[in-house]
Amino acid sequence: MSPIKTEEDWRWPKNGQNEVDPQDSISNIADLYHSEKPPVCYPGSYLDFDPEAQKVILDVLQKNPNLIGTHTHFITMNGARVPKKGEGGFEATQQLEARVIWMIGGMVGGTPETIDGLFCGGGTEANLQGMYIGRNWLRSNCLDPHQKGIVILTTPLIHYSVIKNADILNIGNGKFERCMACGNLHRFESDPSGTGVTFVGMNDSFEMDMGDLKRVFADKYAQGFRRFMIVPTVGTTDAGSIDPVADISQFIDEVHTTSEARVYMHVDASFGGFTVPFVNPDLHIGFENRHVMSMTLDGDKMGQLPYPAGVFLCRKGLTDYIAREVSYVEGNQDDSVSGSRTALPAALAWHQFKKNGTEGQRRHVQACLDARNALAHKLKTELGDYVGVMPYSPWINLLPIKMRAIGSPITQHLKEGGLLAPFQMRKDFIPHEPLNIMSCPDTVYKLCIMPHLLGTGTLDTFVELLKQTLRS
Fold first, then answer.
1. Which end of the chain has fewer surrounding CB within 10 Å, N or C?
2. Cα–Cα distance, 81 to 89 (Å, whole number)
3. 274 close to 263: Cβ distance less than 8 angstroms
4. Among the ranges 56-65, 94-103, 139-148, 442-451, which has the highest mean pLDDT value?
């Protein structure tokens, strides 16, 4: 696209143009990318779509069917499920989305009779919808005799959207402050009122520590708080760790039995939702657990779908807590955050899931895990003196590493044009003492092993380039 030099380059023209400058044509946007194929999924990776999938994309984009509200609601008549009425004119894609949502929900312990859900603008929006419902559910189902508000219990490795969404929902305004000791922006200051996000310590595998969860809960309860939201992560963005969802559900059972408090659990499985159920179905991360109320999954990470393909799931009927009557919509109701939304991810998901099956998805995930494991072994054996491989989940295809070499120049090689730039390795921070959330962090580099890194010699090339950067 041409650089902006004058107002004519950006201002809406008064009169239309018969021809648009080819450099400014939407059809040429892909030329801006530096790879042979445009990146369409996390973390800037490309996907290979078969001709049938490309036809689905073009066909849906041309028709541009609109979805508004949730379409997994139905009534049963003569033993058959009859969809409740939605916005008129788009019934086919509404029913298709419902089936795809049930496909996804079926992998995390749901059925058409037990869950509702929808595609949305990404993991951030799905987290917002879960927390929105959670806030309203707590307000409706738990007294707040001391007027303390809602506490959100999670770990420092939660996705940033949980903190942002707490602010949006007026639950609490926590933020990170710069540490005077190390200079990093890692010291989290909770809302002065005590509401909103409160961090819980982690074990040595960077999973939520159950002992610390119970300690923090007891402390907040003693302060008068009765409304709690717990947000565990299945596949943290920093380390790929998985919080113990089943143990948390058992803890909530104890809380509801022995105290006045009520807890809403929303699981952020943006990354792990499309990996764990396919390679370790016995690790129950979803609705098999009694107190999982809602979930976020993200099809544009490991679900083989292009951006944006967020997925929100919840127990049947919970969307009523945020539903709004809309007279001009034929179904008279909207119970989503986004309102109008595209049907493209649902249509493409239907094609991909039907074509590949769960076995195809399992192979996709397992290939990435096998490559990650091989890379971890190679780094330990060939660069063990310089690179520390940190604990990682067997079921999440992320590899967190840290550099033993002081003053390593690796960061400059991650930037555009650098030796390591094609591998999309990201820099992040993890508390040095996982149980001590305020401890100064280790600098961690995470590598997401995606299909485009599985080619012959690609990961070997990464190791050789890493050697060069460490020696430079």
1. C
2. 20
3. no
4. 139-148
Give the whole-angstrom CA distance, residue 374 versus residue 390.
Answer: 14
Q: Give me 469's structure tokens.
A: 């950067």
Total Cβ atoms within 10 A of residue 226: 21
Report d(CA 277, CA 105) in Å as an integer: 10
CB burial of residue 119 (10 Å; 0-12, 13-18, 19+):
buried
What the chain holds in terms of domains, given with CATH numbers, is 66-355 (3.40.640.10), 357-471 (3.90.1150.170)
pLDDT value at 32 more than 50: no
Contact yes or no for 375/457 (Cβ under 8 A): no
For the cut 60, the answer to whether the pLDDT of residue 22 exceeds it is no
Give residue-wise pLDDT tens across range 372-429: 999 999 999 999 888 999 999 999 999 999 987 655 667 777 877 777 887 888 888 8
Beta-carbon contacts of residue 175 (< 8 Å; ≥ 6 apart): 163, 188, 189
Closest CA to 200 of 222, 225, 182, 218: 218
CA atoms within 13 A on the CB side of 323: 14
Alpha-carbon gap, residue 47 to 50, rounded angstroms: 10
Each residue of 305-316: pLDDT tens digit? 888 889 999 999
CB 304 within 8 A of CB 321: no
Cα 337 from Cα 124, distance rounded (Å): 11
Contact between residue 399 and residue 380 where contact means Cβ atoms under 8 Å apart: no
d(CA 63, CA 76): 30
* 220-272 pLDDT tens trace: 999 999 999 999 999 998 899 999 999 999 999 999 999 999 999 999 999 99
Nearest of 66, 49, 45, 37 to residue 351 by alpha carbon? 49
Strands (E) in 69-131, as ranges, are 74-77, 80-83, 115-120
Under the banding of pLDDT at 50, 70 and 90, the label for residue 33 is: very low
d(CA 314, CA 108): 11
Place of tokens 């690179």: 387
β-strands 115-120, 150-154: how paired? Answer: unpaired
**How close are the terminal C-alpha atoms of the chain, in Å?**
35
Measured CA to CA, the distance from residue 125 to residue 90 in angstroms comes to 23
Mean pLDDT of 144-173: 96
Q: Average pLDDT, stretch 131-153?
A: 97
CA angle in degrees (0–180, nearest 5) for 358-238-413: 105
